[in-house]
Amino acid sequence: MSRILLLGRNGQVGWELQRSLAPLGELVALDRHSTDKDGGCGDLGNLEGLRRTVLQLRPTVIVNAAAHTAVDQAEREPDAAQTLNALAPGVLAQAAHEVGSLLVHYSTDYVFDGGGTAPRREDAPTGPLSTYGRTKLDGEHAITAAGRRHLIFRTSWVYAARGGNFAKTMLRLAQERDRLTVIDDQFGAPTGAELIADATAHAIRQALRDEACCGTYHLAAAGETSWNGYARFVLDTARTLKPDLVIQAQEVAPVPTSAFPTPARRPLNSRLDTTRFRDTFGLHLPEWQRGVRRMLAEIL
Ligand SMILES: NC(=O)C1=CN([C@@H]2O[C@H](COP(=O)(O)OP(=O)(O)OC[C@H]3O[C@@H](n4cnc5c(N)ncnc54)[C@H](OP(=O)(O)O)[C@@H]3O)[C@@H](O)[C@H]2O)C=CC1
Ligand SMILES: Cc1cn([C@H]2C[C@H](O)[C@@H](COP(=O)(O)OP(=O)(O)O[C@H]3O[C@@H](C)C(=O)[C@@H](O)[C@H]3O)O2)c(=O)[nH]c1=O
C-alpha cells in the first residue's frame, strides 16, 4: 500500500489534495505547525526537520503544496521566500532520492517574463520578474538537479472555495466600493484548486505505473482572460447566482499595468500551453469559467 506525505494541507491546493489523495493510500497530511508528535515536521522553514520527516516516514509519494505565495510580500522578505520556495523543495528532492519517493511539486506562470502573446510550453525560456517567480524557478531547478523522478506542475491564478484569492478579493471590494480598477493587459487562466488536486491524483496513479510520465507539466484550465475579464465574470456570475447580494461597484474600470503599481512585477502573458499534460495524462482540462462558477455557487 502506498504512503503519501502531503505538505501544506491547509492551503487552497493542499485542502483539495486531502480529498483527492485519500483513495491512493495512507495519507499523512501536515501543515507548518505539525510536530513529530503527530507524525512529523511540516514546517518548510525547518529544513533539517523536513528531511528527518521524509527519512522516517519513507513515503511512496511526497506532495508539496506548501509555498511562500504572497507575491508582493516576497519582495520585502526574499530570504524567507527563497527558503520556502527553493531550499525546502531541494531538501525534499534530496530526501526523496534517498528513500525512493516520487516527489510532486507545484510551480507557477510567474517563472516566465510574460513577453509575447502565445501560450508557453514547458521548454520555453524562463525569466522571472519577481522574487516569488525567481524563488519558484530556483525550486524547480533544485528538484530537477536532484535527479530523482518527480512531477512539477506549473499552474496559474489559483482559486478555491477555501482560502484567499483574487476572486474573493474582487467580491469583497465590490461590496465596499462604487468602482473597481483592474488591470486588463495581463492574460492567463484562472485555475481551480479542485481541478489541480484531481489532476494530481490522476497523474500520480499513472506516474507510479510508468516512470516515463515524470517531468514538468503545465496544468491550467482552458481558455484565457485578463484580470479585468476575470473580475467582471466573478461579479456578473455572483449577481446571477445571488440576486439579493449587495454589489456596490457599478464599474470594473480597465487599467494598464502601468496604472496599477505593485511591489512585484507580474508577467503580461501568463498563458500556459497544456498540450503536454493532456497528451501524457489524457485528461480534459475544462474552460476556466466552469470552475469559477462552481466555486462561487459554493461560497455565495
Ligand atoms: N495561488 C496561486 O495563484 C498559485 C499558486 N501556485 C503554486 O501552487 C502551490 C499551492 O498554492 P496555493 O494552494 O494557492 O497556496 P496557498 O497560499 O493557498 O497555500 C500555501 C500553503 O503553504 C503554507 N505554508 C506557508 N509557509 C509555510 C511553512 N513555513 N511551512 C509549511 N507550510 C507553509 C501555508 O500555510 P498557512 O495556511 O499556515 O499560511 C499555506 O497553507 C504553491 O506551490 C504555489 O506556488 C502556482 C500558481 C498560482
Ligand atoms: C486587488 C487588485 C489587483 N489587481 C491586479 C494586480 C495583479 O496584477 C493582479 C492579481 O493580483 P493578486 O495580487 O490578487 O494576484 P497575485 O498574487 O499576483 O496572483 C498570483 O499568485 C501567485 C501565487 C501565482 O503563482 C500566480 O499564478 C498568480 O495567481 O490583479 C488590480 O488590477 N486591481 C485590484 O483591485
Quick summary of this structure?
42% of the residues lie in helices and 16% in strands. By secondary structure, the chain is α/β, with parallel strands linked by helices.
Task: Walk me through what this model shows.
With 300 residues, the chain is an alpha/beta fold. It has a single domain, classed as NAD(P)-binding Rossmann-like Domain (Rossmann fold). The protein is 42% helix and 16% strand. The protein is built from ten helices and twelve strands. It has helices at residues 12-21, 47-57, 73-76, 78-99, 131-146, 166-176, 193-209, 227-241, 275-281, 288-299, and strands spanning 3-7, 26-30, 61-64, 102-108, 150-155, 158-159, 179-183, 187-188, 191-192, 215-218, 225-226, 251-255. Strands 2-1-3-4-5-10 form a six-stranded parallel sheet, with helices on both faces. A two-stranded parallel ribbon has the order 6-9. α1 (12-21) links the parallel β1 and β2 (26-30). α1 (12-21) packs across α7 (193-209), α4 (78-99) runs parallel beside α5 and α6 (166-176) crosses α8. The protein is globular, with a radius of gyration of 19 Å. Dtdp-4-keto-L-rhamnose is lined by residues 69, 71, 108-110, 156-158, 166, 169, 173, 180-183, 186, 227, 260, 262, 266. The site of dtdp-4-keto-L-rhamnose has 20 residues, from α6 and β7.
